[in-house]
Specification:
- The chain is 36% helix and 19% strand.
- With 274 residues, it is of the alpha/beta class.
- Helix 7 packs across helix 11 and helix 10 crosses helix 11.
- The radius of gyration is 18 Å and the shape is globular.
């Protein structure tokens, strides 16, 4: 276990991805797929341009969510299998890609043989794993020799205006145990590089991508921002009304003259060659 990121004494607290994150991300999957996931498109497009997938490429989308990146990879001709811990998101992914295989599985225990895939992608997924290193080692195990692992995450909190949301709603939860993973658990300088090295791989170059959010009105904004797992967790603890009011208050500075909302955000990704 990579000690600076996860405290060893809290392993018993950190349930598997499937047990905790699967339930939270299944509460509002359609709102996520319609109003949130599309803002990762700049990162998806940039990664695809570098991967240069072909019809002979077998790709595992690890933490595929509602299947947007999977759809884009499928459109290149690649053979794609998607896994996710959230049955609600998987249902959307299957509707988008009815001829492909999407499975409810855990990042820390992939049901595939060694050396199965040419590419494994994990967008906005590894940072939610109960055990970062175990999830990474599983991806390494199922990759073929000279395969490629893509890890896409948020950039550092100060690089995204959307972090104001987490600050606003996080105040309604009791402090989590030290070492508990969250949206930015792998985003700090050196964290991802150290984890990849710990897993026995050579870190690739970290690339930054602008992923701005643009919402036309308050209704759309709330549909989007009340759907991710961190928001759902706070809603379950404090109630939707409290969370809604906190979001609107915190995001008032980002309201545009037209009544919409605009946020400047950055994501980052690394392509690791095995």
């Amino acid at each position: 276990m990579f000690v600076p990121l996860i405290n060893q004494s809290f392993k018993t607290y950190l349930m598997s991805t499937k047990q905790i994150q699967g339930k939270l991300w299944s509460v509002a999957p359609h709102y996520w797929s319609q109003h949130f996931e599309p803002y990762f498109l700049p990162m998806y497009k940039k990664v695809l341009a570098q991967l240069k997938l072909t019809e002979e490429t077998l790709l595992l989308d690890a933490g595929c969510g509602s299947g947007l990146f999977s759809s884009m990879a499928i459109s290149t001709g690649a053979q794609v299998i998607g896994i996710d811990a959230a049955p609600g998101l998987l249902e959307v992914a299957r509707q988008r890609n009815p001829d492909n295989n999407f499975m409810e599985e855990d990042l820390e225990a992939l049901p595939f043989a060694d050396n199965s895939f040419d590419v494994v992608t994990g967008f906005n997924s590894f940072q939610y794993a109960g055990d970062f290193e175990k999830a990474l080692l599983e991806s390494k195990r199922v990759l073929k020799k000279k395969g490629r692992l893509v890890i896409g995450i948020w950039d550092k909190p100060e690089m995204s205006e959307a972090t104001q949301i987490l600050k606003a709603i996080g105040s309604f939860l009791p402090p989590p145990p030290p070492g508990t993973p969250g949206p930015f658990a792998l985003s700090f300088d050196g964290a991802l590089e150290a984890l990849v090295t710990q897993a026995g791989m050579n870190p690739g170059k970290i690339e930054q991508v602008d992923c701005p959010w643009e919402y036309p009105d308050e209704r759309t904004l709330l549909r989007a921002l009340l759907s991710p797992a961190p928001s759902i967790r706070v809603i379950q603890h404090a109630g939707e009304g409290v969370v809604r009011d906190a979001i609107l208050k915190a995001l008032a500075p980002f309201k545009t003259a037209s009544g919409g909302y605009h946020f400047r955000n950055k994501a980052r990704y690394m392509i690791v060659k095995t």
